Automatic annotation (TrEMBL):
Residues 15-213 form the YjeF N-terminal domain. Residues 223-491 form the YjeF C-terminal domain. (6S)-NADPHX binds at residues 62-66, 127-133, 156, 258, 321, 375, 441. It catalyses: (6R)-NADHX = (6S)-NADHX; (6S)-NADPHX + ADP = AMP + phosphate + NADPH + H(+); (6S)-NADHX + ADP = AMP + phosphate + NADH + H(+); (6R)-NADPHX = (6S)-NADPHX. Its cofactor is Mg(2+); K(+). InterPro entries: Carbohydrate_kinase_pred_CS, CARKD, Nnr, Ribokinase-like, YjeF_N_dom, YjeF_N_dom_sf. AMP binds at residues 411-415, 440. It comes from Peteryoungia algae. This is Bifunctional NAD(P)H-hydrate repair enzyme.
Amino acid sequence: MMLPRPEILLTPTEMSRVDAAAIASEISGQALMLRAGEAVAACVLRHYPAALRFAVLCGPGNNGGDGYVAAEALVRCGANVRVFALGDPERLRGDARIARAGWSGRVEALEAYMPQAGDVVIDAVFGAGLARDVPDLVQQAIADVTAAAIPVIAVDLPSGIDGASGKLRGAAFRAERSVTFVTRKPGHVLLPGRDHCGTVEVFDIGIPHRIVAAEAAGLWVNGPALFQSFRRPRSAEDHKYRRGHLTVFSGPAISTGAARLSAGAALKAGAGLVTLASPSDSLAVNAAHLTAVMQTAMDTVADVESWLIDQRRNTFALGPGFGDRDKARSYAVAIARSGRNLVLDADGISAFSGDASALREAFEGSAGQLVTTPHEGEFTRLFPDIARGDGGKVEKALAAARAISGIVVCKGADTVIACPDGRAAIEEHAPATLATAGSGDVLAGIIAANLANGMPAFEAACAGVHQHGQAATRAGEGLTAEDLVSHVLPA
């Protein structure tokens, strides 16, 4: 059976290379622009048939060229169209200049546009390649359109959104719909860009997939196509150890709940056997709450080393509610030396604050796989220099993954999963209800279950993040972390 392709996200730089490669293969750049502009016109006519006027705002590059094509296509369909340009349209070059010459009407200055009731704005000022703040004239147009509550259709991306990072560049149109070409861009999926794009429609303008795939660097929208071929099929011959034995470390008696959430989520996600490794003073508290999760006493690193003698104990989750950072650090190093898999979360991450190199050294040469799951604050503590940098979320997550030679799950409403080999995925289906205490502990348990089941670390993390979001969607409003556990399903 043919598996579906993962959805590629092309950065603006990669998209430029795709365009160049398509033209080098004798696909006309002018034909590509014609298809793009006509796709925009088709979209606005389909969704806004009652518009009294289309105001097409054109920029000084190829995005503006798409706008001129769209304007002419709308006029041919009998629409009332006016075109407003940023800068001197006579200075356009290449295909955009040809598109401008094909526009049969007047071109007015951008500052002349005054929003009117019944208008629909087609924003073709800047596309995905914007990497600087928009000029004052554009910021004023954005303010005027926003104040008038005029619907906006963005060509590629709303002007003011950085296509590579999703960052806001001074100000940005908030579009009801965005029309993009070939693939979505990171700015469509990362925040705050995602909130400015509205409904995104992707149009095929005739560039073969082989060209797209050749220029893509390995950034995808997270989803089953990334990990489903790595699922271990269930078998009548399965037993609990074949499905993986996960050990979750508990904190002291007053903070045991986080580890139990991780352990419970891991069982629901398909781990064959889960043991909660508790300090002696936590045994009674945990025993009162546990049924299917097993329990053992673990107070020192010597206890951990003794536990590691059994090779069936293949995966560990460390950090949720753990408390003692020095002990967490020594436990993590012992696990790394044993060649076992480790999901490091919460206090486990904080145990290496400002010392990511120590984490890398511990796992260097180890057969074990490392996954870290930091939220923004934990990321900043573990990778202070990377966090202070200018890159976007994907770039920072990839730099962090390289720094520890492990997987980094940079959590948030636009969670990024990054691998040191340069692969990355962005999760876009994470409900806001996940912003609740204990949600991250559940995620750590799900990812650990996938590792215990034999998934490679990157795919295990991608699957876990997706399962987490889907569980929240099933749980609905009012969810707590306990509710979330009950809605977890295997990958």
